[in-house]
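Extended Data, panel c. Modelled sequence:
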Amino acid sequence: MHVPDGFINAPTSAVTGVVAAGAVAVSLRGARRELDERTAPLAGLVAAFIFAVQMLNFPVAAGTSGHLLGGALAAILVGPYTGVLCVSVVLLMQGILFADGGLTALGVNITDMAIVTTVVAYALFRGLVKVLPRTRRSVTVASFVAALVSVPAAALAFTFLYWIGGTTDVAIGKVATAMIGVHVLIGIGEAAITALTVGAVVAVRPDLVYGARGLGQRLKLRVNGELVDAPSDTGPAPAPVAARSHRKVWITGLVASLVLAGFVSFYASADPDGLEKVASDKGIDEKAEEHANADSPLADYGVEDIADARVSGGLAGVIGVGVTVVAGSAVFWAVRRRRSDDTSPSSTETTV
C-alpha cells in the first residue's frame, strides 16, 4: 500500500507530514518506556523482519497481490510506540534506497501504514486479551484478529485522505468499495503472518512479546482433589528475565529475514498490490509522478548492473535487511540510552 508521489495533492501531503512527524516524536518519547532489556535488542530486528516480509507479495485475487504492512506485528512484539517507529524506519529505507513509496508522500505512508495500523491493531489486541482466557493461544488469536482488521482500516484511511486531497476526479464510493474489498483479502494474509510469527515467539520466549506480558496463568495446586491458586511466594524466585540471553532469538530472526529477502522473495507474486490494482482500475494513478530516487542503484529492489534477476533481487533484499537492522538498532539503542539517562540517579537529584 505504498502511496507514490502524485496520488495526493501537496497541501494534504504536507498536513499528513506534520501528523506523521508529530506521531514519530510522541512515539520516540513513548518508546523510552517500552524499550527495556527485552525489547531494545529486538526492535531493530523486528523492523528488518518487516522489511523482508514486505518483499513477499502473495496473490489474493485474479491479477492482484498483497504484502504485510507490519503495524500489528510490530506493536504486539515490541509495543505500540516502538511499533510506529519500526514501520516508519522501514518506510524511510524503502523510499530512500528502493524508490518504493513517494518521498513527498512519506507523511501519507507513515500515517497510513505505521500509525493507523499500529493504533487500530494494538487497541483491538488489548481489548481481546482482556476478555479471552489468559493463555498463549489467546495471544495468537488476538494477534490474528487485530492484524486482520488493521489492513482494511489502513485502506479506509487512504480512502479518506484521497477524498480530501486526491489528484484525480474519481467517485470516492467506488474507491472505498474497491480498496476495502481487496484489502480485507490482504488482511487475511497479514493476519496469518502475524499470528504465526507471534505464536512462534510466544512458544519459545513469551517474555519477549510485549503484548503477552502479565498474561501468564497463576500456578495451580491440587488440594483435596480441587485446583486452587498457589501462594504467590511458593517456590524459589525465578531468574531475572534480563539475565536470559536474546542471542539465539536475534540470530534466528536475522537469518530468517535474510533468507526471506535474499531467496524466498524471488518467488513472490509479480502482480500489482491492492493499491496499485485499484489505482490502475479506477484511474487514481493518472497523475502519478516518477519517484525522485528512480535512478537509485537499488530501485525496484534490484541491484544496478547485475543482469541475473535472481541474484540482483536477492542481493538487494539482503542489503535492505542489513541497512534496516542497522538503522533501526541505532535508533532504538539511542532511545534506550536516553531512557537510561533520564532514570539515572544524577538525573533525579534535586538541589536545595
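Residues 217-221, 232-243, 347-352 have pLDDT under 50 and may be disordered. This feature is highlighted in the accompanying rendering.
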